[in-house]
Amino acid sequence: MPTIAVAIITRNRKELLKECLASVFGGTLVPDEVRVYDNASDDGTIEMLKADFPQVKVIANKENFGLSFCHNLALSDFTTDAMLLLDDDNEVAPDMLEKLVKKLFSDPTLGIVLPLFYNAYDVPKTVCFCGGETSMWSGRNLLNDKNFSQDVKSYPTRRIPNATLIKKEAAEKTGLMDDRLFSTMADEDYCRRMEKQGYKAIFLLDAVTDHKQIVNKSDARRLGLTNPLQTYIFARNRAVLIKRYGSTIQFLVFFIFWQPLYHLYYLLNMLRYKAPASFVRAYLKGVWASLVFVFTGKLPPLTEILKAFSQPENK
């Protein structure tokens, strides 16, 4: 059996993290190593880990550096045959990890395998995510059908969030994630880079995890209107992704037609939710940063981005 590590990213969600870790250690395949990367929690997370999970290796950041930064810390210390990058709001099924590992190493072209995500708080549980990608024409989310038939065993994907089992050889050839993207679309950027190395990513539909996130479709959270940094990222990253991976024609269609519509939509929603002026300024900074990238190919380093904004929540 290949050696497996689990790397969990957390910030100020002590109880969710405890439930997540209990599900990992209670599985049919117990990982060889479990690490927790804490983004400056102040709710007693570190103390809980020391008391309840002394076998877990804890990496405590002094600041909230975001998901991609912590994923890169994990990928930089990749000593096992595969690593599961896991968010703290998952309660994994007992056989999830075992199924993912078997699938990942059954096909040399696979670099990443993910489980099916269920909404943990729905009764009965419903599928919340099973993969997809960003349209290179419009920037829209092209998501896989949640109402799949029983004969569908897996879905291809370029979105790889939340519970991602990565093969070491694929990670070594791909390199680290672009932490300047911080969170939104950083996963798809990484997956598309891995594709160029000859590896694909799939959702394995009979491996499952419960995602413990309360979703309110009218909530400003899904629009990134939770903190200025996330607003900046929403304004910037879509253009970065399409400029990098779309054709010239695709990018021009997006940039000339779709991008202005997105900006209008988000600015109107800021008025709707009465967003503070700091959010509007952050969004406009993101628009400017996207234009700078389009014409120069340059993004500011993570340290510069963090200095410009208040510290965000990890998701």
Structural notes for this entry:
With 315 residues, the chain is of the alpha/beta class. The chain folds into two domains: 4-211, Spore Coat Polysaccharide Biosynthesis Protein SpsA, Chain A (Alpha-Beta Complex), CATH 3.90.550; 220-308, no CATH class. Helices cover 40% and strands 22% of the residues. It is built from ten helices and twelve strands. It has helices at 14-25, 45-52, 67-76, 96-104, 168-174, 186-196, 228-245, 248-272, 277-296, 302-308; strands at residues 4-10, 33-39, 57-61, 82-87, 90-92, 110-119, 126-129, 132-134, 141-143, 154-156, 163-167, 200-211. Strands 1, 2, 3, 4, 5, 6, 7, 10, 11 and 12 form a ten-stranded mixed beta sheet that branches. Strands 8-9 form a two-stranded antiparallel ribbon. Strand 6 and strand 7 (126-129) form a beta hairpin. Helix 1 runs parallel beside helix 2 and helix 5 (168-174) crosses helix 6 (186-196). The chain is globular.
Give the SSE layout.
Blueprint: E1 4-10, H1 14-25, E2 33-39, H2 45-52, E3 57-61, H3 67-76, E4 82-87, E5 90-92, H4 96-104, E6 110-119, E7 126-129, E8 132-134, E9 141-143, E10 154-156, E11 163-167, H5 168-174, H6 186-196, E12 200-211, H7 228-245, H8 248-272, H9 277-296, H10 302-308
Parallel strand pairs: 1-2, 1-4, 2-3, 6-12
Antiparallel strand pairs: 4-11, 5-12, 6-7, 6-11, 8-9, 10-12
Helix pairs in contact: 1-2, 5-6, 7-8, 7-9
